[in-house]
Known about the structure:
The structure is a single chain. By secondary structure, the protein is mainly alpha-helical. The protein has one domain. 80% of the residues lie in helices and 0% in strands. Helix 5 (108-147) packs across helix 6 and helix 9 crosses helix 10.
Amino acid sequence: MSTSADNQEEGLAEGTLMSHLVELRNRLFIMFGSVFVVFLALFPFSKPIFEFVSEPLRTVLPGGQLIATGTASPVIATLKLSFYLALMLAMPVVLYQVWAFVAPGLYKKEKHFAFPLLASSILLFYVGLAFAYFVVFPLIFKFVVAFTPESVSYMPDITDYIGFVMMLVLVFGLAFETPVATVLLVWTGITSVEKLGTARPYVFLGAFVVGMLLTPPDVISQIMLAIPVYVLYELGIIMAKLFKSRPVK
């Protein structure tokens, strides 16, 4: 009897594992497929997209033009830009697939928390991208152009520019996830709201250290990353209090 029961349990466990693997495969297919579809939709418009993305630099650049130093640089740069933008635009689909995969294993109370956090993380990610483009980029490029000696012809390469701005928008997009990360730390029991409050001085200092490490070596971009991170940390503490005290039906 015990051997039969053990075999039955092993069969059920194996079937459950296979079903999870199949579901994971399907959701990964949807993730990569969504990025690929958005990439195909964006690529025909790669030239106007590049004009839009490069506008913060071109408006302050003497002559208003970038250069291409490599033979295939224009093609490589536009391909990279289309792929990065496709990944960012498809992020809601990617995050939803992750949430849908783990949701069946969550309790009802946890599901009440998970979906608002998912929506908040998507919104904050795009707010971070917009903040980088509309606020940080103009300040950085004005600073760089103003700091350039008159004897130097400042003409950035398009491939380097795309890599630079995509790295920076990704940093700001992830940095704006600070409130969500803060809530998750409290929700999972790793820390408490009270401990987060006492850690304010260390977070303030750490925000400037992170800004120094993740942004270009100029004071403006470091400050523009550090201050929002700290403000968002305070917002995360407020959100953690609300989620903690919110009654769950």
